[in-house]
Amino acid sequence: MRKEDCFYLGKIVSKYSFKGEVLVKLDTDEPEIYENMESVFVLLGRNLVPFFIERCRLHKSALLRIDFEDVKDEAAADRIMGSELYLPLSFLPKLSGDQFYYHEVIGFRMIDAVHGDIGAVVSINDSASQVLFEVDKEGKELLIPLNDDIITKLDRAKKEIHVSTPDGLVELYLGE
Q1: Where is the RimM N-terminal domain (predicted)?
Q2: Mean pLDDT of 80-106
């Protein structure tokens, strides 16, 4: 399994018991849908390694307590501590309407209400406090805030995101 074919589920943040159980901080708004998983991919070095789950359950809201089949003591738990967990993209629940996953809109055209086609979405920058679309317009990078006030429509069939950007934002980047 390639990392590009998977989504980040969370990270192993601590041991739970001397029997090898671990706690995973999930990166999701709906932790309950991951309560009954049978397996996950654990990133070890550069490789995604399948780990089979004996038992998993929610622990204090956004933490998932996992008992892996092959992790039965503290030393084994220590070896996977801090590792990231992934699942295949096919496990993501389907979204409808204007909801989308970040990876889903890469390559979509961004259509502004005033300026028309302002480029293609090349990535989503979520490392700052404001999540941004990174859009490429003929070699120029535009940073467009990702929020519900700006996104007016998502057209999956045409692979377009329609936006209404704040006055002056597009001009700032394109020098219009």
Answers
A1: 9-88
A2: 87
User: What is the model's pLDDT at position 61?
Assistant: 72
What element of type H or E holds 63? strand 63-68
Domain 102-174: CATH superfamily, name plus number: PRC-barrel domain (2.30.30.240)
Long-range contacts of 125-132 (CB under 8 A, 24+ apart): 126/102
In this model, does residue 162 exceed pLDDT 90? Answer: yes
DSSP letter string over 9-61? Answer: EEEEEEE-STTS-EEEEE--S-GGGGTT-SEEEEEETTEEEEEEEEEEEEETT
* φ and ψ at residue 169, rounded to 5 degrees: -65, -50
Architecture of domain 3-89: Beta Barrel (2.40)
**Location of each CATH 2.30.30.240 domain in the chain:** 102-174
Q: How confident is the model at residue 176 (pLDDT cuts 50, 70, 90)?
A: low
Are 20 and 77 contacting, i.e. CB atoms less than 8 angstroms apart? yes
